[in-house]
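Hi R.,

Here are the chain sequences for the assembly we discussed:
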Amino acid sequence: MTARPETDGHGTRIMVVDDHPMWREAVSRDLTEAGFDVVASVGEGKQALRIVASVRPDVVVLDLQLPDLPGVEVARGLLAATQGVRVLVLSASGEHRDVLEAVKAGAAGYILKSASRPEFLDAVRRTGAGDAVFSPGLAGLVLGEFRRMAASPAPDAPRLTDREAEILRMVGTGMSYRQIAERLVLSHRTVQNHVQNTLSKLHLHNRVELVRYAIEHGLDSAPQ
Amino acid sequence: MSLKAPLWRAIALFRFASLAYAAVLLVLRHQAYAHWAAAWGVLAVMTGWTIASTIAYAVPARRTWPLLTADLVITAAAVLSTALVQKPADFEHGVMPVTATWLAGPALAWAVVEGPWAGAAAAVVIGGCAVALRYSTPASIYRSTALDGPTIILLAGIALGYGSRLAARAEQALQRATEIEAASRERERLARSIHDSVLQVLAMVQRRGAEAGGEAAELGRLAGQQEAALRTLIRGDGHAALPAGELDLAAELAREASALVSVIGPGVPVLLSEKAVRETAAAVRAAIDNVRRHCGDDAKAWVLVDDEGGSVSVTVRDDGPGFPSGRLAEAAAEGRLGVSHAITGRIRDLGGAADVVSSLGSGTEVRLRLPRASA
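And here is the predicted structure of the full complex:
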């Protein structure tokens, strides 16, 4: 997509979690060729959770379809196990609810396996740099989630600003940040911040919900 | 658990209850017996057989002809022993046989095991013994009622046999239904796993093909089309229960997805009236056709469904060259563009609005907005 050379991974540490050997190898090879440092490549969720603390990846490329654990649980566990790790969901099956749950749990982005290699590498690069990677599909899901929360009676559910909704809809119709910036006469960075904000709101809300759930169910008291 | 188990419990209960009844009658009518002690001997045999048969019938594998025959023979013998232990004169006056109602046991067991005809046959044998007792002494004024008991046993045998057959058939049907359900669940599980593998491979072919270029690129494009089609198919069978008269717009539009057309929805059903969904889908198809016609065969398009609660908006955007604003009105005025009628007309009929936005460089966007009638 961008005109950057393909060898600017700068040694970002990557862990690949995918149960299909074919994909695991292809993804690892592409990443290595592009200058990323693939520190681990595993096919099972439990294994990923076991080693993540010791291999300390910057970015985990995660397929949600795993044989042993639900992908969402793996995403949650990875994020809880290591400070600062970022999870990029790479999925072929397009399981809507799973993707949304993973993103709410803190995954930084979502890209389909059918994306081209430059698109994929760009997504990993941006995830490593701390940006949200929004495919049109994810924008649609996030937009839908906010619409549902707006329709629910919960008073403290987060809301999208008009600008954020507008930008999400543009991402949802396949526009690049650059095109959106031109259309809205904003800087590329501002567009990115708006997108990032929508995710932060979801993450924050998700955490608040988890805490509330814990308090309501008495999970905050020390175990006997 | 077998549906017949309650029947066997009922038969066992019947045997024990009628055994107690026979014992009570034996105490009350002791003056009718010539050999009262021997009658108690018969009752002891009946008690033994009640216990033995209850234990024997409890195991399905033992419910076969030897047991059934033994049951019938022992019961018939107990009935016939009446002739030896009761006084003929009192017997004549309508005193029950020493077995009392206990004699019905084999007819019930035969009926449950072998069906109504076997139940009837056992009832006839037992009833025949009872009737033979009545006719064993000459000139009885009670002969007229001699058939009452056997008739009831016969009726019970046939009815229970019929009920038991029904229970057996219901059980088979239930068993088959359970098997079918388990098989289809397993098939679904396999299908999900196969679908996932196929999607993985198709996505890989698409990716590698696009990189290789040339003929491989064409293969990759085809694989991508099939991936999109398969994903639509898999997604389609998730939401079976829709309210009557409504359809899921997101699912309906997802059918339009292909390698070049991405359909993006909120991940949950977007319910609208059937008419609204059909007309909107037709309008979206018209918009996609326009993309093909004006932007070429390799232009990409995105369809975004946004459910805002009070209204639903659908945006169709392409990555074609776009055109300067004003051109569209011009084209519509000349009647050249299909946009006017196929899209705008349809949406306006639904009470919604449609507009087209385009600028050079960022493609063309068709925006449809539909009100929710009931909201």
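Residues 148-212 of chain B form the longest helix (65 residues). Chain B touches chain A at residues 195-197, 199-204, 206-208, 210-211, 224, 227, 231, 234-235, 262, 264-268, 300, 302, 304-309, 315-317, 319, 359, 361-362, 365 (CB under 8 Å).

Let me know if anything looks off.

Best,
T.
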